[in-house]
Structure prediction request, 57 residues.
Amino acid sequence: MGAPELRNPPVEWWDLLLQVSRALWLTETTAWLHWRRQETIHGIVRAELRLLPVTLR
Prediction:
């Protein structure tokens, strides 16, 4: 049996969380939730960036 498919919650989930965060005046949280909602609608592009160690020659 393979790993479970990773999925985003439905847009309605993000709408509910946005409504609550606005009611509680959580400005930064509201902005982050809006971003995640947009990712759910339009798709996700994520990258993990790492710095490589410096090599001296």
Q: What stands out?
A: Residues 11-42 form one domain. The chain has a mean pLDDT of 85. The CA atoms of residues 11 and 38 lie 9 Å apart.
